[in-house]
Amino acid sequence: MATKTRRLSELSGDELAKLVSLIGGADSVELKLTIPESAQRSTVAALRLDPLDAQIRQVFFFDTPDLVLNGHGVAVRARRVQGATGDTVVKLRPVVPDELPDDVRESGAVTVEVDAMPGGYVCSASMKGKASNPDVREAVIGARPVRKLFSKEQRAFLGAHAPEGVTLNELSVLGPIFVLKLKFEPRGFERKMVAEMWLYPDGSRIFELSTKCLPGEAFQVGVESRAYLESLGLDLSGEQQTKTKTALEFFAAELRDQPGAD
Fold first, then answer.
1. 158 strand-pairing partners
2. CA-CA distance, 139 to 146, in Å (whole number)?
3. pLDDT single digits (tens) 216-231
4. Structure pTM?
5. Is there a domain that residue 14 lies in?
6. End-to-end CA, the chain
7. What domain range includes position 117?
8. Residue 262 domain flag
9. Residues in contact with 45: Cβ distance below 8 Å, sequence separation at least 6, in sequence order
10. How far apart, in whole angstroms, are the C-alpha atoms of residue 107 and residue 66?
11. How far is CA 213 from the centre of its chain?
12. C-alpha atoms less than 13 angstroms from C-alpha of 259 in its C-beta half-sphere
């Protein structure tokens, strides 16, 4: 999925008011930018990124072959992480922070975040959990029930928003996606950034730069980040891609193309 680039100044008054309201009710804001494949090598060079410093991650999604959960704004994910503990998440988007139930909004496992990229934004509520790398591996190869990867609270959160009859153990495994993640401090810029390279089985890749900030800092950090990247000669006008949707559509298409698939 791609979205065309627009500056904040190009948002309508209603769009800008909605964005301000969402940011005000969120816990954090993540500013994101995807770099087109034609500019990825030059971007790595301009930022002086060393791929050997990146952490390897293996990401799995769970949904039906026709992406019923995704169609209802729900994403279910498990992740194995090199040199660290794996994790799980049940994510709901879009959400309006003030409309979330009190028990969800007050849960220590839930983060409400606005993802903003040139041309678009979305607010999500993510309920996170821990899972060991071996447990995730056992679940995705069928040696462990998928539901056991997720906490009771996560399962209840999913049950409240998934279509009736859709259960964790009946979901298909979509993945893995191999991800290289690198946290770094850009030269001449005072904020930490993250670079992620998502490597898809067909050879395509999505390269994303991001930085997180508090809601009250979002607009200032957005302006400063854009100015910094432009000062390096980076072209920020390319179409933006969403990592999760691209992964879901790729693997769902593979499932539907398998012999015997309905």
1. none
2. 5
3. 999 999 999 999 999 9
4. 0.91
5. yes
6. 25
7. 2-257
8. no
9. none
10. 31
11. 16
12. 0
